[in-house]
């Protein structure tokens, strides 16, 4: 057996992202938190960016990173974030559900600011650092809604489709500099946001929580379960690995078969 290349089973071997710095937005909760934890476990120093101060500080403490308490809808605050990240995970997001003719314009604008303009501003600030060192990774947490629409989610679907276009454009510009840009497209993820929706819908419909997940949320997926935040984080980690250095401009569905329809 060749023991020279196998890392020690106790996890004490060299960590693949040692020396790298990762900026993760929305890192105080859900998928962002899972990405911060996974990147830190792989050796990266993490900038934990979120509007939720206490939760961001807790994740920073947990990961040995730094909390940056920022409202990503504020362009000046976004432009004051560190520019020396080697890895950027654009993850922060929010949802608003209403038909277009009743959709509040200020919510529409807020969602584009947080989910499209902030990623653009963060990328335009961090790419020069990545270009100079000829290595960088942009991971955009899109959604199945970056590839498919659903009724009543106009701002969210618009923002995620825009993020897909931004990600692909950056992939083309950044390739000569050793920088990749990709999207991850999860279906419903077991985050606090979704768990609250499940409980609320179970009450509203008078059915069990399992039935809400299976009959309503997972109607279009072939695999009838929610995906865990850690599974999304593992995909983000893989996109930062040498094995994924030829993967750019792509959109990776983690959607249990939703987009196979
Ligand atoms: P979450 O609500 O658990 O976490 C989102 C984080 O973003 C929160 O910590 C929140 O404070 C932060 N945030 C929101 N607005 C902000 C602002 N203005 N400034 C700074 N931080 C802000 O959500 P999640 O489910 O982990 O979602 C994370 C990302 O994954 C989002 O982009 C979402 O669209 C995407 N996504 C989620 C699902 C799902 O089912 N949960 C599915 C596909 C894609």
Characterize the structure shown:
- The chain is of the alpha/beta class and 261 residues long.
- It has one domain (21-190, 227-254): 3-Layer(aba) Sandwich (Rossmann fold), CATH 3.40.50.720.
- Helices cover 43% and strands 14% of the residues.
- It is built from eight helices and seven strands; from the N terminus they run βαβαβαβαβαβαααβ.
- The protein has helices at residues 30-41, 53-63, 75-79, 105-133, 154-174, 192-205, 209-217, 229-239; strands at residues 21-25, 45-50, 66-69, 87-90, 136-141, 179-186, 251-254.
- Strands 3-2-1-4-5-6-7 form a seven-stranded parallel beta sheet, with helices on both faces.
- It is globular.
- Bound molecules: nicotinamide-adenine-dinucleotide.
- Nicotinamide-adenine-dinucleotide binds next to helix 1 and helix 6.
- What's the domain count? 1
Question: In the CATH classification, which architecture applies?
Answer: 3-Layer(aba) Sandwich
Low-pLDDT stretches are: 1-5
Reading the helices and strands in chain order gives EHEHEHEHEHEHHHE
Approximate helicity band: 40-55%
End-to-end C-alpha gap:
45 Å
Structural class: alpha/beta
CATH-assigned fold name: Rossmann fold
Apparent shape: globular
Observed structural traits:
261 residues, alpha/beta, Rossmann fold, seven-stranded parallel sheet, 8 helices, 14% strand, globular, disordered N terminus, binds nicotinamide-adenine-dinucleotide
């Amino acid at each position: 057996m060749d023991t020279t290349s196998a890392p020690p089973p106790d996890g004490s071997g060299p960590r693949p992202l040692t020396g790298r710095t990762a900026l993760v937005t929305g890192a105080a909760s859900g998928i962002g938190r899972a990405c911060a934890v996974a990147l830190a476990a792989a050796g990266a120093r993490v900038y934990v960016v979120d509007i939720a101060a206490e939760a961001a500080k807790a994740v920073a403490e947990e990961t040995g990173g730094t909390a940056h308490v920022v409202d990503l809808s504020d362009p000046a605050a976004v432009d004051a974030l560190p520019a020396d990240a080697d890895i950027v995970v654009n993850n922060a997001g929010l949802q608003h559900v209403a038909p277009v003719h009743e959709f509040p314009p200020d919510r529409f604008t807020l969602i584009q600011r947080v989910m499209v303009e902030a990623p653009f501003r963060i990328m335009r600030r961090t790419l020069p650092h990545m270009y100079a060192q000829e290595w960088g990774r942009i991971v955009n947490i899109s959604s199945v809604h970056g590839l498919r629409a659903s009724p009543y989610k106009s701002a969210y679907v618009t923002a995620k489709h825009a993020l897909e276009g931004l990600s692909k454009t950056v992939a083309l510009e950044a390739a000569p500099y050793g920088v990749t840009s990709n999207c991850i497209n999860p279906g419903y993820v077991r985050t606090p946001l979704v768990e609250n929706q499940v409980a609320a819908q179970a009450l509203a419909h008078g059915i069990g929580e399992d039935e809400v997940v299976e009959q309503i949320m997972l109607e279009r997926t072939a695999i009838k379960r929610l995906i865990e935040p850690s599974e999304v984080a593992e995909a983000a980690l893989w996109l930062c690995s040498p094995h994924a250095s030829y993967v750019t401009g792509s959109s990776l569905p983690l959607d249990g078969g939703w987009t196979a329809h």
